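FAQ: What does the model actually see?

It sees only this:
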Amino acid sequence: MLNFERVQQLRTGGPVSKPIAAATTGYTSEMSKRPPTPRKNDQQCPRPQDDSQNSGVHPSVVPPTPRNTENTKDSKTVSPPWWKRVGFKSFLEIVGLLAGIGYAIVTYCQWRDLRHNFELEQRAWIKVDYPEFGHSPPSVPVTVKFINVGKSPALRIGASTVVEIVDNRKEPSFLDFPKRNSGMFVSLIFPTENIEYAAELFNGNTAQAVPRELTASEVESLLKGDSYMAVYGSVMYSDQFGTHWTRFCNWKVFATTQIEKPRVFGVVRAAACTAFNETGDGAAGYMNPGLFRTQIK
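And it is asked to produce this:
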């Protein structure tokens, strides 16, 4: 046991007071009277980590705070943009495929236009002319000329022509299938060449109708301007590019002075005749089906 009085003297640098010494002496004597107690085993308290391992409960892991605090969704549930999912290489392949398809379409359109322009330039074209039509006094038949102004030979040429005396207040009848008309068929017309034939005036639109001359009353009506003469029809032909047709119509007023009726001189209802002129491909829109015994292809 320590001598408390000596310790007290060393600390204070003087003699220890009697009450303190008595108290200290009593304390030491009291401690000496107590029986010794056995020493307990020095067992360490379990650490928090050991408790968690023994209990089987794992500590919760707190995820780090996202950089963008406004978007609190899990990054695994957010789908990336399509260009990131596809990949740069696949994206270039798709762009190249679309560009190839677009180039093929443009090339096909250009080829089709070039082919069409080539056909228009190289094909056969039949032009219709009327060399003596309109000479006074009026007369029939009317000479019709077909000229090949194209660059290819015209094959299997067939024509159907009608001559009609029309009232100046009316338009030509343009019969869909005239039973009596002046027909012509030739096998070949070379470029720059032509062929002529006479278009007759018939005494009716029947199978028994025959060609005739103008009557005196018709000539007088034409000279007064009460009527006019119209020549119209169609011609169909073919070449190496296919079948083509030309519709034609021409009209003539033979009046030379304004007689009797107060009207504008030379005005007739012939606008439909002008609009009848047209060209096209395939079967002719105006053709006598009984004119040809040979099918035109």
